[in-house]
Amino acid sequence: MRLSMEVDGDSQPQVVPRDRRPDALGDFNVLSDEIVCSILTLLSPRDVARLACASSVMYILCNEDPLWMNLCLNNENRELQYKGSWKRTTLHRLQVLSKCEDPCKKPLHFDGFNSLFLYKRLYRCYTRLDGFAFDQGNVERKTNISQEEFLQQYDAHKPVLISGLADTWSARKTWTPEQLLDKYRDTPFRISQRSAKKLSMKFEDYVSYMQEQHDEDPLYIFDDKFGEVAPDLLKDYSVPHLFPDDYFDVLDSDQRPPYRWLIIGPERSGASWHVDPALTSAWNTLLCGRKRWALYPPGRVPLGVTVHVNDEDGDVDIETPSSLQWWLEFYPLLADVDKPIECTQLPGETIYVPTGWWHCVLNLETTIAVTQNYVNSNNFEFVCLDMAPGYQHKGVCRAGLLALTEGQNGNSDISELSRKEKRVKVRDSDTEVATNEMEFCYNISFLSMFLDKDKDHYNSLWSTSNCIGQRELRDWLWKLWTGKPELRDLIWKVGACIALHADKWSKCMEELCAFHNISLPADEEKFPVGTGSNPVYLANDNVVKIFVEDGLEASLHALGTELEFYSRMQRSESSLKNHVPNILASGIVFLDNGIYKIVPWDGKGVPDVITKNSEIHEIFSNTEYPFGIWSKKVFEFRKAGMSLEEMVTCGGQQTSIWPYIITKRCQGKIFAHLRDTLSCEEVSGLASFLGKRLHDLHVLPTAPLDDSAYKKMEKEIGIDFNDKINLPNSSKVFFTILNTKKKDASSRLAKGYPIPSALIEKVNEYLPNDFLDLHSLFQDENGKFEVKNCGSWVHTDIMDDNIHLVKNGTSWHPSYIYDFSNMSLGDPILDLIPIHLDIFRGDLELLKVLLESYGLPFGKRKSWEDGRHKVRRISYLTMCYCIIHEENILGAIFGMWRELRTADTWEQVEEAVWGHLNNYFS
After folding, report:
1. What span, in angstroms and rounded, lies between the C-alpha atoms of 433 and 851?
2. Domains parsed from the chain with CATH numbers
3. Which of 431, 521, 677, 775 sits at a 20 to 30 Å CA gap from 323?
4. What is the pLDDT of residues 201-216, one digit of tens each?
5. DSSP β-bridge partners for residue 293
6. How far is residue 291's CA from residue 416's CA, in Å, rounded to a whole number?
């Protein structure tokens, strides 16, 4: 190593090691240590281990334990056992620890290198908090507060620390690490950490980890399912009397968002700066240890925190230092006037955090707590606002006026970084934010000013940061509307009008009723019904449905195909028409200079208002149904070739033209409202009914595709098939669409519901090269192969809100299936997917009953190439359909079969969900 000489006065020359960083890092020397360490987290553990051999500085950077903690957690998705260090833990999981360990080998040490970044991180990992002085803080403290006082002075207004609420709980005595360890030693609890991976640890292993670890941001038990894995814990506490209401409790347990958590963590652990999901309020009761809290009122972003808001779906992402880092490095920089509201919480105390308040928690010692989030009348409007379409209001709710761009509030320090995303800057201590005479106010009237009036709930991309899905939101508001009539004024003003834009659709509904001489809905039916993706209203003996989902072109195809299907069904001898409600009217409603106009339309021909619309692509005007099934197949192909962003742009275009349909109202109730009250015999009867109706549907004659229409489709979608296979034109279209959907399957899965990364990596290997290989091929006398079973009418959307039951005596019996707007031509197996997942909730016995009454041979798939066992499994084909499905089918699968979240192969998922189909023969 090259050395340099330094002389200090009369002292002897000292040999100073030369900085080894430039030579050791080469071109990477221009990057800071922080950036280099960030890059290393993107590599695999094996690559980091190899890179450690490249140079002395790389050896230092690649052997830092916080790096290996990131590597381990980013590659884990299962139960974890800590092995004394994160590098050892990672190597143990990779089953290479024994090959890498040498008990005689000592770590290498190098002079000539220092790093302030690594030093600070090392300090944070080993600092102790028992030497830090924390006062009681300035959060108001109350004892024996009445519910009336709490609601008037604090609820949704300001935080308060309350004593005495947990005095009678068993948890006050039994929730200690020692006692919990005795009872729940082998119970796995979920761990909170900065990774999308799902991680859990047995409590015995977690206690051992707490005692051994030296992490800056230690793993933290933050388990919203503790009541399922350890139900006795729910008996140890009760919801304090100050928080009696939670409007989310009207949802089924599998629909409601997470709301209660068991929280256990060691010294230095905690929750970094955040606003609670959906702008809910929360209470947190401490049973063991001490917590330090810091809070800021809504709209005031803490120093060091950055808020990102996606301007397409409103997804909110927050960049924040760990709670320990913030207290050590950012808190000392604050002037007194900029410091947060603070307090130290002691055992037995309950802190209330109002809606929209920023808060950060640091555990000063090992702590155990329980917390719950809730929605009541005082924060309901904020929760609904949070799920309204658009992005700007979400930024304002969290970051206040800092979320506004330069042109909106005059603050030149806030810039738009890209078309897709706006980055809300943190406040610098010497920067004043100009408000342009607009004062931030956290009330619904002010915040709703920032809603995007052009965005609509039904055809806008749903934010992944929303606490529930679109369907669950509609179901939630409808259940509140019917179950809590005393809240209807509030529900309509905020839930309906802000979140669903129901006022707009209600006005449209009134015009349709007047045009068709239909009585207006009763007050209790003013709210749209069902959980479907279009507004549906009950009006006396009628059901009015307005098509808005995915924009005008998709809506026209939805109604056009439904009308074509009804027509062909009525002309047939099928018994299916006895179980489908009659159509009373259909047409187009549109706004012309602010006035609603209505044009009746039976699906034949093209109304002038559509012909003149520039948004519509080429129309099959020479066919009986210009927006019928074959025009819809071309539309499906265009969608299949689109990226998610293109689909959103296409479907999210605002229009003032909407197709509609009016059908006869069915007596009885939909299955979704009866599910929990039906007996096993009644549900089994429903399964048998569905099997018979599917039989009727799948044998119904399909619409022919004439040569001229096919040539038009062939030109637009580029169909090309081997002439040795005798495919009808309809089948060529079907397989072309399937293979197009397959092309970007892995990228779509990565953007959707959290799926094990191991499965995403293997999806292209699992899917067939050509979907044609998976279908029954029969050789004719000329040596050509012919495809069977791919051109039936399929509903594709038989779900729990599309099935009606009537009461006969004391029992419920299925009567009708409706909502045929998603009709298509394809493989009959497609109809099994929503039925098995949504109606049967994965119950294999019900699926068996359905198949017994179905009686058609879609279970007999034959391979045209000997030895291809994979293609002979009906379960494999069904799983492939699930993977490329445009709906969130995999979300439903991994939501119901939680054990599959640790699956290593798609074959495991296939066998668990669809394996029973392989036993079906007709």
Report:
1. 66
2. 15-126 (no CATH), 141-302+340-377 (2.60.120.650), 304-319+392-445 (no CATH), 378-389+452-521 (no CATH), 547-665 (no CATH)
3. 431
4. 999 999 999 999 999 9
5. 343, 361
6. 38
